[in-house]
Amino acid sequence: MPLIFLLADLKVDCGRDSVTLRWRVAQSQIDTSLLRLGGCYPSSISAGEAMFQVELSDCNFRRLVTGDTLMYMNELTYMSGPKAQLKSFSHLVVCAYERPADWAPRIFDPVFHTYGQGDLVFHMELMKDDFSGPHLSSEYPLGSFIHISAAVEQMFHQPLLLLLEECVATTTPELQSEGLVHPIITNKGCLVASKTSNSKFEPRQKASEIRLSLQAFKFTVGKEVYIHCNLLAWDPSGLDTSKKACHYVKGHGWVLLDDPYHSTLCGCCDSSCESRKTSGIASEKHGITQNAVLIGPLVVIDKSLA
C-alpha cells in the first residue's frame, strides 16, 4: 500500500441507516474526485479532502449477518493514472451493528426474476441546472445543457443499477421509421453525443438514478423535439460491454461512469457492442428493461437567428 495513503486521515461514522466517511490527505494536489465508495461519488470535495454521506441501501453496500452482528461492507477506492503521485488503492469500509431481535432479511428472488411491471417503476424528466427539481421551461438555447434525470423505484428488489441503453431525439411522440432521428446514446450505453459536444453523464448520487447533461444540439431548431430512451435496471455486479454507461472525455477516450478503472468495457463504443435483443418489457436473469420512455416536447432555439 502506498505510503501516501497510510498518512491519510480516514474517518467513518456509521449511523442507523447511513454512513458518513471523510478521507483527507495533506497533499492538496491529489484529485479527490477520483475517490469512490462502492458505486457512489463523493458528496463533496475540496483540496485534499472528500466526504461521503450516503444511505446504507445505496452505493452497493454488502450486508452480512454473523451470529448477533449485522455488518454492512463496502470499499473505498481510488483510481489514478500511471504517472499520478497517489497510486490506485482499495480500502475496506465496515459498519457493524448489534443484530435487532426482530431483524429478518428482505424477501427477494436471488436470481432477480421480476414479477410484472409493478415491481419496478421507471421515471424520466427534464431537470433544472442543479437537478434540484423539474425544469420549468421547454425552451433551450442552442449550446446550453438539457439536464435529464432517470430513476427507478425498486420496491422489493435487491438494489439495482439504472442504465440508459439507447436514447434518440425525434420530431414525433412516437418512433417512426420515416421520421427524423438524432442519436444520443447508442451501442448499449455509449453516449455518442459526447464525441461531438460537451454532453456527459453526471456523477451518480445513487445507484437507482442516472443523470445526463446533454448539450442542446442543432436538430430541427425551433421545432418540438421528443427524446425516446430504453432504461435498464441491472445487477450492479453484472456490468459488461452490453450493460454500461460510457461517455467520451476529450484527451482520455471512452470512460466508464461507474468505474473508470474498468473503462475497457467501453472499448466497443466505436464499433459494435453485442447484446441479446429485447422488446417491450423484458425480464432477464439480472434485471429488467423498460423500452420507449419519453420526455418532451422541448424546443431548441438559436438566439443568433432572432
Automatic annotation (TrEMBL):
UniProt-listed GO biological process terms? binding of sperm to zona pellucida; egg coat formation; positive regulation of acrosome reaction
Q: What is this protein called?
A: Zona pellucida glycoprotein 3f, tandem duplicate 1
Any one GO molecular-function label of the UniProt entry: acrosin binding
Family annotation (Pfam families): Zona_pellucida
Question: What organism is this sequence from?
Answer: Salmo trutta (Brown trout)
- Give the matching InterPro entries: ZP-C (IPR055355), ZP-C_dom (IPR042235), ZP_dom (IPR001507)
Q: What's in the keyword line of the UniProt record?
A: Disulfide bond
- GO-annotated cellular components: extracellular matrix
**Keyword Iron-sulfur attached:** no
Q: Where is the ZP domain?
A: 13-253
What the entry lists under PROSITE patterns is as follows: ZP_2
Q: Where are the transmembrane segments?
A: none
